[in-house]
C-alpha cells in the first residue's frame, strides 16, 4: 500500500509540467509507515524540496507530518507548507504556511498534488505551436 502511494508521488512528479527533474534522497517504507524526501528541480530553475512521514491508518495511507519547501533560483523562500507542531497561535494549527520575510499564516492541510498545482499555476502557460 505504501509502495503504491510512493509510486503515485513519482508519477505525479514525472507528469508535472513544473518539474524538470527530481532526486529521491531518502525512502524508507515498511508495511506500517514510511518516510520520503525528494528534491525537485523546477522548469523555471526554482526548487521544491519536500518530506512526508506516512502511516497506514484504518487501511488508508495518511500523511502524519509534511514539509513542502518552495524556493527561488536564488535560494530565497517562496513558500513552505508544514505541520510541525509550533506556531500554536495560528488558527489552523498545526497546519501553517511560511512566507518570505519570516511571516507565518494559516493554511489548510496540504499534500504534494495541491502544492504542485499551485506551482504550476505560477508558471507561464505553455505555447502551442
What sequence of helices (H) and strands (E) makes up the elements? Answer: HEEEEEEEH
Biggest sheet features: 7 strands, antiparallel
Helix content: 10-25%
Low-confidence segments, given as residue ranges, are none
In words, what does this structure look like?
The structure is a single chain. The chain has 129 residues and is of the alpha+beta class. The chain has helices at residues 2-15, 112-122, and strands spanning 19-29, 33-42, 47-57, 60-71, 77-82, 96-99, 103-106. A seven-stranded antiparallel beta sheet has the order 1-2-3-4-5-6-7, covered by helices on one side. The N and C termini lie far apart (41 Å). The model has no long low-confidence stretch (mean pLDDT 93).
Question: Which features would summarize this protein structure in a list?
Answer:
single chain, 129 residues, alpha+beta, seven-stranded antiparallel beta sheet, 7 strands, globular
Structure summarized in a few sentences:
By secondary structure, the chain is an alpha+beta fold.
List the helices and strands and how they pair.
Layout: H1 2-15, E1 19-29, E2 33-42, E3 47-57, E4 60-71, E5 77-82, E6 96-99, E7 103-106, H2 112-122
Antiparallel strand pairs: 1-2, 2-3, 3-4, 4-5, 5-6, 6-7
Amino acid at each position: 500500500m505504501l509502495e503504491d502511494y510512493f509510486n503515485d508521488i513519482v508519477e505525479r512528479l514525472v507528469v508535472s509540467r513544473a518539474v524538470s527533474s527530481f532526486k529521491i534522497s531518502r525512502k524508507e517504507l515498511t508495511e506500517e509507515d514510511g518516510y520520503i524526501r525528494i528534491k525537485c528541480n523546477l522548469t523555471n530553475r526554482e526548487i521544491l524540496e519536500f518530506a512526508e512521514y506516512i502511516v497506514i491508518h484504518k487501511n488508508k495511507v495518511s500523511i502524519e507530518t509534511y514539509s513542502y519547501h518552495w524556493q527561488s533560483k536564488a535560494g530565497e523562500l517562496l513558500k513552505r507548507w508544514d505541520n510541525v507542531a509550533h506556531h500554536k497561535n495560528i488558527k489552523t494549527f498545526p497546519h501553517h504556511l511560511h512566507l518570505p520575510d519570516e511571516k507565518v499564516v494559516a493554511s489548510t492541510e496540504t499534500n504534494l498534488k495541491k502544492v504542485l498545482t499551485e506551482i504550476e499555476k505560477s508558471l507561464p502557460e505553455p505555447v502551442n505551436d
